[in-house]
Amino acid sequence: MNAETDTDHTDRTDHTGRKPIVKEAPVVTAVTRISAPVEEVWRVVVAFDQYSQWHPVLSLDAKPEQVVVGAEVPGRVSGGDTDERDVTMRIVDVEAPHRLVWEGGSLDAILGRHSFVLTPQSDGTTEFTDSEEFFGPAAAELIPTLDQLTEEYSRNGAALQARVEGLVDFRPAPGPP
């Protein structure tokens, strides 16, 4: 393959101008169908101060009005196989009510770029895609755990689904016009 057609990922940059450290960055993705419109799911996804009420391992210390590019979102991860630890994410992309991306960690070890994509479906439900791509010299060490991480992200999606659908179930049905 010649240099002009080679798709070596280390030569590309993303929207933040960063070059991936590994040729193929490890990625975890889980997709959940939620019986609610995109706007309802979005309200729960950006209600950072309420994550501890539904998310299995993450609590955040920020309000929905702080969901802007560049905002730092402090939080805490607990449960699972790890000890409780403080984390800080920086929001790098927001396209309300369809996409939220934050980064956490460090390119010196592992940086995770976590995205939430909400896609409306023709039946009024939402396809929620929870994905994280890992960069940094230690990112390759995650490859053996990707299946386990995918299961964890699926549990997170199921928890979001239960939260959103529980909130929607308690709303009165629209009456006749």
Quote the beta fraction: 25-35%
Read across the widest sheet, the strand sequence of neighbours is 1-7-6-5-4-3-2
Q: The biggest beta sheet, please?
A: 7 strands, antiparallel
Terminal-residue CA separation:
64 Å
Task: Write down the secondary-structure element order.
Answer: EHEEEEEEH
Low-confidence parts: 1-13
Cα gyration radius (Å): 18 Å
Structure description:
With 177 residues, the chain is an alpha+beta fold. Helices cover 18% and strands 31% of the residues. The chain contains two helices and seven strands; from the N terminus they run βαββββββα. A seven-stranded antiparallel beta sheet has the order 1-7-6-5-4-3-2, with helices on one face. Helix 1 (38-45) crosses helix 2. The chain is globular and about 40 Å long. The relative contact order is 0.21.
Entry keywords:
seven-stranded antiparallel β-sheet; 2 helices; globular; 18% helix; disordered N terminus; 31% strand; alpha+beta; 7 strands
Topology (SSEs and partners):
Layout: E1 27-34, H1 38-45, E2 58-60, E3 72-77, E4 85-95, E5 99-105, E6 111-120, E7 126-135, H2 146-169
Antiparallel strand pairs: 1-7, 2-3, 3-4, 4-5, 5-6, 6-7
Helix pairs in contact: 1-2
Briefly, what is this?
By secondary structure, this protein is α+β, with helices and mostly antiparallel strands. The protein is 18% helix and 31% strand.
